[in-house]
């Protein structure tokens, strides 16, 4: 899995939406009917969540990472 994003110099131009829309249309044309997005959308990084929700995606679940020190 690789992270994708828009270069800061090209944000707010609709490029991410255009790419997502093109990919979803190609996916549907190939027979796809359900797309799942694994994006970061927490309070520290809200933009992906806003983009996907504006495209009709809804939150299904949230993954939480717990990081700790080894004991012993």
Walkthrough of the structure:
The chain has 72 residues and is mainly alpha-helical. The protein contains two helices and no strands. The longest helix has 15 residues, at 15-29. It starts with 14 loop residues before the first helix and ends in an 18-residue tail after the last helix.
Q: Major sheet: size, sense and barrel closure?
A: none
**Relative helix content:** 25-40%
Q: Please give the number of β-strands.
A: 0
- List the secondary-structure elements in sequence, H or E: HH
Percent in strands:
under 5%
Structural class: mainly alpha
- Separation of termini? 33 Å
- Looking at the structure, what is the overall shape? extended
- Poorly predicted regions are none
Give the rounded overall mean pLDDT: 88
Q: C-alpha Rg, in Å? A: 16 Å
Helix tally equals 2
Layout: helices, strands, pairs:
Layout (H helix, E strand, L loop, with lengths): L14 H15 L17 H8 L18
List keywords for this structure.
72 residues, 32% helix, mainly alpha
Would you kindly provide a brief summary of this structure?
The chain is an all-alpha fold. The protein has helices at 15-29, 47-54.
């Amino acid at each position: 899995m690789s992270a994708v994003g828009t270069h800061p110099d090209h944000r707010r131009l609709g490029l991410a939406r255009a790419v997502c829309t093109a990919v979803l249309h190609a996916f549907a044309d190939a027979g796809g009917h359900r797309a799942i997005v694994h994006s970061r959308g927490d309070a520290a990084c809200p933009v992906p969540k806003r983009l996907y929700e504006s495209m009709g995606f809804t939150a299904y679940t949230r993954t939480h990472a717990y990081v700790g020190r080894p004991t012993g």
